[in-house]
Amino acid sequence: MPVRIAVVFKDRCQPKRCHLECIAFCPPQRTGTEVIWIDPETTKAVISEETCISCGICIRKCPFDAIRIIGLPEALKEDLVHQYGKNAFRLFRLPVPKQGEVIGLLGPNGIGKTTCVSLLSGEVAPNLGHYRRKKAYWEEVLDYFAGTELHDYLAKIANKKLTTAIKPQYVDKLSKIYTGRVRDLLTKADKRGRLAELIVSLDLASFLDRDIAQLSGGELQRMAIAATMLKDADIYFFDEPSSYLDIYQRLQVAKVI
Ligand code: SF4
Ligand code: SF4
Hints:
This protein is of the alpha+beta class and 257 residues long. The chain has three domains: 4-72, Alpha-Beta Plaits, CATH 3.30.70.20; 75-162, no CATH class; 165-256, P-loop containing nucleotide triphosphate hydrolases (Rossmann fold, 3-Layer(aba) Sandwich). Helices cover 32% and strands 12% of the residues. It has eleven helices and eight strands. The protein has a two-stranded antiparallel ribbon with strand order 1-4. A hairpin with a 6-residue loop joins strand 5 (80-83) and strand 6 (90-92). It is globular. The two termini are 44 Å apart.
């Protein structure tokens, strides 16, 4: 059977404002096979990946660009690591962090970089596609990855044998969470005695004595990167470390990482 993913962007799908074109023009639906319908609970379109024939008509007909049908290589079929819901984003495969190495994940928005960070840092346990489960099933996850490089890594994460530090993606929200001077926050975070070094290499001196609420996006970004690096952890994650930075600052941050 062909492997396909049907994604309905819930924020775009607006059945009350369209003419249900996705249902009206779907060829198998028109001949009596149930493929696409409006879920009474969510009031959004739902697509059956089993009966959809990937014709792509609904993608073109939807006035709000709310549908994607993605064909997958057969080889990926067995590699589903995480899924957020029916007709929702899915992540196939995970990179394996290695001691002493820096791994960079590149890709457009929505490709799964932040999900990788959440899974590899242990913030979220892989659900292997069982998106209705509310709790982590680590035993099953470790069985699934048995014999792979990821198994040993995830076993340490599951058993809390690895400590992680994460630089969050949305640094603009930090001023709503933290208050006070930048210097005080970084001094508190400095478990490795590296603050003086990072003040120079990340060019922090000009805003060290300012209040966090007064920082620009680029200053918040550099403060967040420094605070993450100052923690004592086995693995460091930097989610979107280049946003708000100019090219010079991006290179500076890349060198420090
Ligand atoms: S997917 Fe598009 S056409 Fe279908 S119900 Fe939602 S908004 Fe309407
Ligand atoms: S891709 Fe074709 S078969 Fe699948 S839901 Fe859309 S219109 Fe129907």
